[in-house]
Design a protein that fits this description.
Helix 9 crosses helix 22, helix 11 packs antiparallel against helix 12 and helix 16 runs antiparallel to helix 21. About 55% of the residues lie in helices and about 10% in strands. It contains 24 helices and ten strands. A hairpin with a 2-residue loop joins strand 9 and strand 10. The radius of gyration is 26 Å and the shape is globular. Strands 3-2-1-4-5-6-7-8 form an eight-stranded mixed sheet, sandwiched between helices. It has about 525 residues and is of the alpha/beta class.
């Protein structure tokens, strides 16, 4: 929300436990398991339910010793000591939340630095003033808007449709395995089919790792793993309420899956595709009952990305779409209702952003400089690094498909990119792409030439232009849904409130005129969409 804790929280927690631990928790927003909370002193006791009465009596009789904030708390009662720690906190915090975009972490650090060791009400009184200032910032107002956007998307999952109990996933590649694992983690019974046994084994291994990351107990982990059943013969289709196809992005392959799956579906079952770009009018050609076919487009990595595009077409049943949105809520994800169209919303908007980065890279602008320009705007990572994360093969496939199917001037991807893909340099997953990757990190040069002054607009405005086109064409119904989908599906700078909100704040006339200037300088790919001139 762009705020630090209020109601005395900043002062209470830094006095109750080790102040460095307290500040780390507040600055990161991370949760901790109950055992660590007990060890830190955030809670007095952790007891089994049957022992609650005895523990309460012990507390009332004074048998439980009080915590203090330890040796570090006493050392950090002096301001010079806090200043040293605050310097490190600022450095680490700025890496994730630049203070020019997110002022709350710096405000929290300054509160503790100035008042953390003072007795009496000084820190609590200063917290009130700091909290009030933060509430009036654009960042906080926009992040509160994002909070409401999340609730609006969540509201779409509240339907009267019968909940999904059993899910069958076809394809245990990266996306299929992650979708199946996430559904099992969220309590659904899942069968996962793949003809390659090692892929099924890898899917189970990944789910075990996810359970550990999510702090599941040993007993809970066993339950989750029991809910994911490797299926070597596709037998799970017959019992599934929902079948999700997650095979590679090849129309013929997907249609072959439907021809095999559809005759085995039980009455009322949903057939869903995880396609990221292929229109459903094309995919449904091999489906006899197209009313039950819809799109459920998850984003990678599934366990981290909260958005799922729920894709409709003119033959899809409204009851099926309602049940699909309910399913998205069951697995703690946010649905973005979109109509079938090339690239749907998120990939349609993201592709011009990525392709323009490739064009600039081809012009000789350093990859690091391009990424820095996007990160200065507030993107979680730059487009060059993102392309490597997504996979250059996927980026190339989507870009080619959009150029073929859309009446747009999207530039062709450079020949060297095709050569990279043909050679197998696909990005992070192969260790080499536009960057070299080591231990999951892109290797970037510290020193490089700066990007041209218009880099930010060349990257961001094509994305905004595509969002406007999707609105005008009815791919998605309203600006708020566009903003929510782009924030939760791509990480679009949350403190700006979403791409359409940013456009309104900056001025749609100004967006249009800047696009026209870029069109004169670089070509028709920057031609403003007619929607900027229409009343909405």
């Amino acid at each position: 929300l762009g705020l630090h804790p209020g109601l005395g929280g900043t002062e209470r927690l830094t006095r109750l436990i080790d102040p460095i631990e307290a500040m780390t928790l507040m600055l990161t927003g991370k949760t901790i398991p109950h055992g660590k909370a007990r060890k830190l002193g955030m809670v007095d006791e952790v007891v089994e339910e049957r022992h609650v009465e005895a523990a309460a009596r012990a507390m009332l009789s004074g048998d439980i010793s009080e915590h203090d904030n330890g040796l570090r708390g006493r050392v950090l009662s002096s301001k010079p000591a806090r200043q040293l720690e605050a310097r490190q906190m600022r450095s680490k915090s700025a890496e994730k939340a630049p203070p020019e975009h997110y002022p709350a972490p710096e405000a929290l650090i300054k509160l503790w630095e100035d008042f953390g060791g003072a007795p009496g009400p000084e820190m609590r009184e200063a917290e009130v003033a700091s909290f009030a200032r933060l509430m009036m910032t654009d960042t906080s107002r926009n992040l509160v808007r994002v909070f409401h956007l999340r609730n609006q998307l969540k509201g779409l999952t509240r339907t009267s449709a019968e909940p999904v109990q059993r899910v069958h996933v076809v394809g245990a590649g990266e996306m299929g395995a992650d979708i199946a694992g996430w559904c099992a983690l969220r309590g659904l019974s899942v069968t996962l089919f793949d003809p390659e046994a090692d892929k099924l084994a890898q899917a189970v291994k990944k789910l075990a790792g996810l359970c550990e990351k999510k702090h599941r107990t040993e007993a809970e982990r066993r339950d989750v793993l029991d809910r994911l059943v490797p299926d070597f013969s596709n037998q799970g289709i017959a019992k599934a309420d929902l079948v999700i196809e997650a095979v590679p992005e090849k129309t013929e392959l997907k249609q072959k899956v439907y021809e095999e799956v559809e005759p085995q579906l039980k009455e009322g079952a949903i057939l869903a595709t995880n396609t990221s770009s292929i229109p459903l009018e094309t995919l449904r050609e091999k489906v006899s009952d197209a009313s039950r076919l819809i799109g459920l487009h998850f984003f990678n990595p599934v366990a981290m990305m909260p958005l799922v595009e729920v894709v409709s077409h003119d033959q899809a049943s409204e009851a099926v779409l309602n049940r699909a949105r309910g399913f998205v809520g069951q697995i703690d994800r946010l649905p973005a209702p979109v109509a079938t169209a090339p690239g749907f919303l998120v990939n349609r908007a993201l592709t011009p952003y990525l392709v323009e980065a490739m064009v600039m890279f081809d012009e000789g602008v350093p990859a690091e400089a391009i990424d820095q320009a996007a990160e200065r705007f507030g993107m979680p990572m730059g487009p060059i690094e993102l392309a490597d994360q997504v996979g250059l093969d996927i980026c190339l496939s989507v870009a080619d498909m959009l150029r073929e199917r859309l009446d747009s001037a999207l530039p062709p991807v450079p020949d060297w990119l095709r050569e990279k893909v043909e050679k197998g340099d696909l990005g992070k997953k192969t260790g080499q792409g536009l960057y070299r990757w080591s231990k999951g990190e892109a290797e970037k040069k510290d020193k490089h030439d700066p990007a041209p002054e218009d880099t930010e607009d060349r990257l961001i405005l094509p994305l905004l232009n595509a969002c406007m086109a999707c609105l005008r064409e009815g791919v998605i119904e309203e600006e708020a849904l566009v903003d929510g989908a782009m924030i939760f599906g791509t990480g679009f700078a949350p403190f700006r409130g979403g791409p359409m909100h940013y456009a309104r704040h900056r001025g749609e006339d100004e967006i249009q005129s800047t696009l026209e200037q870029l069109q004169k300088g670089y070509g028709d790919r920057f031609k403003p969409d007619p929607g900027w001139s229409e009343d909405r």
